[in-house]
Request: fold
Amino acid sequence: MTRLPEHVIGDARTSTFAWDLLEQLVDIENRMAGHDGEMEGAAVVRSAFEDVGLSDVAIDEFDLPGWWRGSSAITVPDRDRRFEAEHEVLALPGTPPGDVTGEVVDLGYGLPEDFDAADVEGRIAMVRSDSPDDADHWYHRMEKYAFALEAGADAFVFRNHIDGCLPPTGEVGYGNRPGPIPAVGVSAELGARLARYADADATARVTVDCETGPATAPNIEGSLGPDTDEAVLVTAHVDAHDTAEGAVDNGVGTVMVCEIARLLSRVVDDLDTRVRFVVVGAEEVGLYGSSHLAATTDRDDVKCVLNIDGSGKSRTPKVRRTNTFEELVDPFETVAADLDIRFPIDESVAPHGDCWPWTERGIPAATVGSTSPASGRGWGHTQADTLDKIDVRDLRDLAIAYTSAVLELADDSRAFPEKDPSEIRDALHDGYVRELKAAGRWRFD
Reply:
């Protein structure tokens, strides 16, 4: 039997609270980090925190290098073709402006061996957005960008593997914002055309117009439960890319934090440990919000961190990574057994998402999401990340599983030892090391 009482589970299965909040978020024009819409999203979350009775509700603003999109285009002079529509090509956030002409080199998946087998120096490197099924890990966009930098490419083209005229977006600057070379995302259809042109040694021109400058983003916080020395942090990010509604990434995560807070407020006397709910800003552009939160929080005040990202693709919860903190496994296995559900657990470590600023410090942190029928982001980071991709019944089931997990994490019988940061460093895949160094995010030396 789950620790969550039946009347609370019944509430979760019938409530429209999370769905109503999600509609409010996706109706905001643009929640890009550092833009006005992100602050509008923060106001929605603050009101929700106040409505469910959290204490110490506040918005903490912080500075970051903002980025504003201009026009982008790929021109192929040999074929007298120019591609500039938003369903064909988009600048990747964090890219510098630029105008690069060179031969297009199609590198397939963009794995290290693909770069080793090709000469991309002074050329335009094009890679797919997915990874092969037999890859030793999922190769992130930023890894492939780092490989292109190391190989001497003058520009980077990120080709979607999902059909539908959906150029993918995603940050390439991070701690070195803006990044060193221009970078654009192109649709699968344009990518196929460019690959065909590359086979004929075609030359292309990549032009990017954009602007970087000072900006401000918000973290929204509230708390619930006893006044204990340590707290369980439940986090998600409110920002989204400026090309879509950001329903899955990460509107669902944001409203899940609010719904967990609402459900736990009904059983607050059952909490052994205080729970801090923090919806952060500026995740998509370099984890600025979670980094600010981690840097301004005394590590002795944190029992563990549960981050929600990548939810809403199904009703089956998934621990996307425990970041090698072994003691974090059992609470989720307990929830799976109590609710008689699948709750798959990945125990690996990766420097992506709002867990990383905690993980790199050796503070126990896990990210939860939901299972997906396909690998990769799917609709995420494209114009198709919209509300119609989500089922309210999935949100309800996920809320029950996540809330049950927070109760387990807050149990005073459970302890989650910290790790020396060197253990995290040693557990990182070499590709992640190269990515972190290229992005100015390497904190271990």
